[in-house]
Every structure is written in structure tokens, then in C-alpha cells.
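Researcher: Watch the backbone:
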Amino acid sequence: MAMKKARRQSTDAGLNITSMMDMMTIILVFLLKSYSTSDVSVAPSDQLQLPTSSAIKPPELAVNLVVARNRIVVDGVPVVDLTVVPDEEHPGESMVAVPEDEKRGQVITKLYDRLVEKAEAAKTLAEQSGSEEHAFKGRILIQADKELPFAVLREVMYTAGQAQFGEFKFVVYKAG
């Protein structure tokens, strides 16, 4: 008679969740560190390099005006394309400018129209909500390329001022 081999009784190993908990903790810490509560989004671009500053005040919610090297954008919608023209002060060099047919004096017409629409929409929202929190304050966030000629920035600021936006906040990268 042949002897049967004794079967080993299998011991059910418990589920080891230590490694999984470590992984989840690392993911949680990563997400918390990368979470941003800022109302302003700055998309990296070759056409927009913000200047650096030692400012520590966080940006506030307002109309977002981006003045890149190739166009002006209001709240993500392109408004005016900029052109490259010869620089009169430095012969042989060129600079970015607002096309003359897009301006009436110093006012950039398409930008003015878009900002007036934004101001009217903000005032309507403030009236409907009835709260002081949503009141139109004339605040505008300007993201301007650090290589942009001041003449373009001056025209943009003048146009914004004419469209009832008198409080300018510049978005910059924090130094260090």
C-alpha cells in the first residue's frame, strides 16, 4: 500500500496594505503641494515671459488681460494681433507695436470694446446679486511680457482706463 503524501494546509496570508498606504500617502502629499488656490492662471508660453519681482501679495480675481509679444488676450479670448515694426530709436532693429488701423488715437478699439463688455457684464452681475462682494471695482490683472515696449503697455493701460478699469494689478513671477 502506497502512502499518500500529506497535503500541506495552505495558510491564507493576510493582505499587506502597508505598501499601498505608503503609496497613497506620497500621492496625497504630492497633490496637496501642487494644489493652487490662485484665481489667476499663467500659462507658460514663448510669447509671454513675465518679469520677476519680490512681491508677495497673491493675485485677486479680476478681468485677466494678457499682453504677449504677438497678441493681446482678454480672459482667454484673443482680441488684437500685434505687429513687428522698425524701431525708430534704434535703426536696423525692430519692435512690437499695435497696428495703426486698430487704434483711434491712443485707444485700441477692439480692446476697448471687449473691456467695456466685461465692465457692463460685471456691473449687471453686481446688480443682480446685490452683494458688495460682487461689486464692480474696475480692477484688471495685466500679464505683460517683460520685453514688451512701454509704448504698447501705455496704450493698453490707457485703453483699459477709458473702459472704466482704473485699478491695475500686474502679474509677475516671484523672485527666488
